[in-house]
Amino acid sequence: MLKPIVALVGRPNVGKSTLFNRIVGERRSIVEDIPGTTRDRLYGDSEWNGVPFTVVDTGGLEILESHKQRTGRDQPVPLSTASAGLIEEIRQQAEIAIAEADAIILLVDIVDGLTPADEDVADVLRRTDKPVFVAANKSDNLARERAAGEFYSLGLGEVFPLSALQGIGVADLLDKIVIALPVTPETPEPEALKIALVGRPNVGKSSLLNKLLGEERAIVSPVPGTTRDTIDTYLTWQEQPVLLIDTAGIRRRGRVERGIEQFSVLRAMKAISRADVVLLLLDAQDLVAAQDAHVAGYVLEEMRSIVVLVNKWDLIEKDTYTMDAFTRQIRADLRFLDYVPVLFVSALTGQRVDKILPLVSQVYQERSHRMPTGELNRLVEDATVRHPPAHKAGKALKFLYATQASVDPPTFVFFVNDTRLVHFSYQRYLENQIRQRYGYIGTPLKLVFRARSKE
Q1: pTM of the entire structure?
Q2: H/E/C letters for each residue in 310-349?
Q3: Which has the closest alpha carbon to 392: 413, 419, 414?
Q4: Which of 14, 42, 18, 3 is nearest to 106 (CA)?
């Protein structure tokens, strides 16, 4: 499901991260329950008054360099110098939000008052027809709330005094935002197997696309970030319609350059949301970077299937044990995706490229597999006999019934005597038992536990 995007824009230290956390609230994603998944997030899903949306902290896209990177010095930059140097970078944040977001929050600091950086970004935001909301942060008392009137001079409409830290006024802001979000029905995706190619710049996504198609459909260049937009390309493979979604590269933290390339992250997120199966491309010379784990975490949150492709395998000096060593390293770096297949390819030479679509097709078929109820309940019975769940406060967890409620993604519902007795480790144990019986390779499983209803 493609959710509307709400972007946070503002200069450093106005409280964007605090407001981001406040809006996302206590919602716990699947990723947060799995050890080893990155917590370093630029985005978060939220819901208000029944309206789901995604919040993106544009500052988190690393548009702003550190003072040391900008000046070459370790000591702090004087405020006036720093502010002057940030205006153009903050303007870029606004342009990103205008390009990709459905609504924009301009966060300002009521303690600092109106600054040149605030006025400059307001100049950019006034040119968009997308809804813009000015949030005057740190309004934690009546005097500061009254001072918020200064920001009406930005000409962006109503100003919302709030305290992101204390939660004051955030509800009023969200009430207005969700009303302004687009409610047009989604355009149905074509009946095709949808495959998204994602990864950092220059890992060979466009080259791989061309090799899969057998033609020069996408521009190939050694310059990182050549692909600016997502590119949809159709092909037929063994009478199966396939939609390939090529995306702009996702840079490592601290390496996102200014300009149009910056919002490639948002576009990659949208591509992942559209896909059935995601191909995460790694560079054999660099393997898993923090940003790869971050993207893999988003794929998991979206409950999409995933295949890891290690590209540029032709550039690696190999012996009998090289592939096993690389696989172990990838498994260690992406240990929350131990069920994901890894394929070593070369988009340049075509090595193993012919194995990609058969593997993706297998992953998709297993994503759609339904386990018979009787078989699932026998599996649960056998699993609990071999490894009984631990007691908690003298009470034992009992499984009453299990069923697979849906496919795409595979969702299993377990009726138990008390959901509070379900430990995370036992949930993982059951997932592993299901995978041993029927692989579900490359596909996340959703396990839901419900208590027996009391009549």
Answers
A1: 0.65
A2: EECHHHCCCCCCHHHHHHHHHHHHCHHHCCCCEEECCCCC
A3: 419
A4: 14
Given a cut of 50, is residue 285 above it in pLDDT? yes
3-state helix, strand, coil in the chain (%, to 5): 40, 20, 40
Residues 6+ apart with CB under 8 A from 164: 15, 18, 19, 21, 22, 137, 138, 170
pLDDT tens-digit profile of 12-71? 778 888 898 889 874 332 223 333 222 334 677 889 998 989 888 776 333 333 333 334
| Distance in angstroms (rounded) separating the CA atoms of residues 104 and 56 | 10
In contact, 294 and 333? CB cutoff 8 Å? no
CA distances, 61 to each of 92, 256, 266, 294 (Å): 11, 7, 10, 12
Burial class (CB in 10 A: 0-12, 13-18, 19+), 358: exposed
With a CB cutoff of 8 Å and minimum separation 6, the contacts of 451 are 415, 416, 417, 418, 419
Q: 161-213, pLDDT tens digit by residue?
A: 999 999 999 999 999 999 999 875 555 656 889 999 988 878 888 889 888 88
Counting beta carbons within 10 angstroms of the beta carbon of residue 11, is it exposed (0 to 12), middle (13 to 18) or buried (19 or more)?
A: buried
CB of 311 closer than 8 Å to CB of 346: yes
Return d(Cα 32, Cα 71) in angstroms, integer. 37
